[in-house]
Amino acid sequence: MGTRERILDTSLVLFNQEGTAAISALSIATALGISPGNLYYHFRGKEEILTALLAECDLALDRLHRRMDVELKGPMDFEPFLLSLLRVGHHFRCLFRDQEALRFAHPGLARSWSRLLKRIRQISQLLLKRLNQLSPLGLTPSQRDKLADSLMLSALASLCFELEPDKDGETQLIQSAHSLLVLLRPYLEAAGLNPVSNEQANAP
Amino acid sequence: MGTRERILDTSLVLFNQEGTAAISALSIATALGISPGNLYYHFRGKEEILTALLAECDLALDRLHRRMDVELKGPMDFEPFLLSLLRVGHHFRCLFRDQEALRFAHPGLARSWSRLLKRIRQISQLLLKRLNQLSPLGLTPSQRDKLADSLMLSALASLCFELEPDKDGETQLIQSAHSLLVLLRPYLEAAGLNPVSNEQANAP
Amino acid sequence: MGTRERILDTSLVLFNQEGTAAISALSIATALGISPGNLYYHFRGKEEILTALLAECDLALDRLHRRMDVELKGPMDFEPFLLSLLRVGHHFRCLFRDQEALRFAHPGLARSWSRLLKRIRQISQLLLKRLNQLSPLGLTPSQRDKLADSLMLSALASLCFELEPDKDGETQLIQSAHSLLVLLRPYLEAAGLNPVSNEQANAP
Amino acid sequence: MGTRERILDTSLVLFNQEGTAAISALSIATALGISPGNLYYHFRGKEEILTALLAECDLALDRLHRRMDVELKGPMDFEPFLLSLLRVGHHFRCLFRDQEALRFAHPGLARSWSRLLKRIRQISQLLLKRLNQLSPLGLTPSQRDKLADSLMLSALASLCFELEPDKDGETQLIQSAHSLLVLLRPYLEAAGLNPVSNEQANAP
DNA sequence: AATGAATGAGGGTTCATTCAT
DNA sequence: GATGAATGAACCCTCATTCAT
After folding, report:
1. CATH of the domain at D129
2. CB within 10 Å: which end of chain B, N or C, has fewer?
3. In this predicted model, what pLDDT tens digit does every residue of C110-164 receive, in sequence order?
4. Residues spanned by the domain of C30
């Protein structure tokens, strides 16, 4: 694997582990066993690394976006898709968690970041559109977009705030997906479908 | 107003404006027109300021928490309450936005932070409990808690990610509250109540 | 003596000795026995030190400028005045020697530098004006200004290029002053005065 | 043209444009479209490039020096010769402008540099000797050498300090030559010759 | 001749924090 | 309560230079 790729991979791991602010360019180089000069030969600084990671994340989401029409055929497809989506987000979670810090430390990232956010919003809106095609949600388009935003925000927040820090990443992802599906539950039920495992409702 | 309070107020404003990472102890002192030594006389460092802000936020949420039983009497009470809640969150938004960066820069904040998060979770769960008391939601307690978590995450994310950066703070807050209500809409409707203004549903 | 003054003094000595490019902020701090942080507390960087030195030099020249009308009463006054002038230049010689390097490393100095150069030019022109008042030089004003420029350039160059590097600073200054007077010799002679010690002319 | 020559040419252009200190080995290689490794194959470093440029300049001045006896036949020959001399200096102006910075950054250049300076001094002295042969200057040899030094310094300074930065290079050269001739004017006049265009003298 | 990844020392700068006054 | 000079560690980055290919 080329040095450039190794830098990106290691950076992402370190950024996810300790936050982008806590990881210096030198610590990345040290973790890789390369000299700081070499790091700067491949990327002109931390900002360029982050730009590359943002682009990678954007690309991964773009691929998901393109596959939505094909993959979301029935109500059972939403949970796996949400999981794929959350998996991408989790893989690049540092980008979402440190969003605010990055905004001020690296104004140059603003455009990449807003492009990324726009794409997520599109995915969220398309998700509800597909759901509506399967069975009318009983919402105005405006309400549907609001619901899409809430869904997206809830998903983003599940990447940022770990409610069960003790559980491992995969379990957290599955729980996040379930929580998101609960938001959609009434609409899926209205479509005569309940994708979430049935439990006894209204226990005290 | 005492110097201690002025430090907290100014810090919060600066932290909200430019992020906690971008604001140094010196810049707080400069903004206040006091010497760095004086700042350190009142607070042993940036971490202590943040701890104090976390405590203030926690206190404000505690007050809201205690009033819920009294204030949430009918379905029309939920929107104002959500607004109050979001207003507190918005006032201390730097704490939520820089959560990740703070976690690593100041491990000493971890306990205060998890206490804060727990309280928000309690509020969210109590919110749905009250709703359930008004009219059964048709959810198991576990599903209800998941819904509560989604609601909370959506609220937290609306503090972290500005979807409409051009609008002013108050407008953003109202939109956030509406978005959250959309999440609850099916349950409120099931209770024979629709707190959100009626629009023509299912337009193409 | 205050730290600020000590920084300026030491910087000037080091800059003169080894050139502005060869002296780092750290080496100044080390030479003074202070920490780099303290250096940056007093000056935001090397550029601010240089700006302050340029201002000091400008001030010294301004003082000389103001005294010219009073001090240049007769032909015997020119040599001492030239020596004073050269002494100031020699004291700040790093500014003239590294002029080009500074121009590119610190564009912020451009304005201070051009102001300084303008003042030197004014002094040179006033010098010839006074000489002309003592005895007509037989030059058009335009020719007189050209002569003033040549005189100034010759003086500046004597600060930049050491023709006799083995001799000590004071001797070099005196020789420089003599060289400059030789340029003026024909005009002083025409005024019936020969301020330079008489030697036997036109030896083989 | 061989790579070696292209390196020298491009280096000289860049050094003249932005100063020797601001131009790194890498930037020269980039400007040439070659790899840094290739640059170091031809020259062991920036110092060797500068040594080569010093040698080129020295050679050009040597050629001028040898032609002086032949070319300086009459008083009208001095201006064109001065122009040729200044043109060489202007072509290699970075060497003179950054003299001080180079001295400390590259002590290895000291010998080449002092040889160069000595040659210029010889040329300046020979110039006055030829003038004296055309018509006695009325100066002792010592005074004549001092005048030669002043002339040389004035010429060097005109390469280092741009008094009229807005005018193009050729115009600056011509003005510099005129300024130098003004220094010689009294002696040329004394020889019954005025090489500078006559203007009305002693206007107020 | 030429490439380009890699090195490592060093420079400029920031900042949380201390302490004598 | 308050000042402000001082500290020192750490960070980001540049650059001359080397070397395997």
Report:
1. 1.10.357
2. C
3. 999 999 999 999 999 999 999 999 888 888 898 899 899 999 999 999 999 988 8
4. 1-44
**Greater pLDDT, D35 or D139:** D35
Nearest to D196, CA basis, from D176, D186, D181, D177: D181
- Domain co-membership, B39 together with B68: no
Quick: pLDDT tens for B26-39: 999 999 999 999 99
pLDDT given at position B201:
43
Kind and range of the H or E run holding D15: helix D3-18
User: Is D in contact with B (3 or more beta carbon pairs below 8 Å)?
Assistant: no
Which pTM was predicted?
A: 0.90
Q: Do A182 and B147 touch (CB under 8 A)?
A: yes
| Domain shared by B193 and B153, yes or no | yes
Question: Closest-CA residue in chain C for D23?
Answer: C104
The enclosing H or E element of C60 equals helix C46-71
Distance CA D182, CA C96 (A): 24
Residue to test with chain D: of C182, C185, C188, C200, most D Cβ within 10 A: C182
Round the average pLDDT of chain C to a whole number and report it: 89
| pLDDT tens digits, one per residue of D6-44 | 999 999 999 999 999 999 999 999 999 999 999 999 999
Residues with CB under 7 A from strand E: A 3, 33-38, 40-42; B 24-27, 36-37, 39-40, 44-47; C 24-27, 36-37, 40-41, 44-47; D 2-3, 34-38, 40-42
Closest residue to F10 (CA, C1′): A24
Please report, as a single letter, which amino acid is at residue C19: G
C41 contact to strand F (CB, 7 A limit): yes
Contacts of D71 (CB under 8 A, 6+ apart): D77, D81
In terms of domains, do C31 and C57 share one?
no
Secondary structure class of C151 (helix, strand, coil): helix
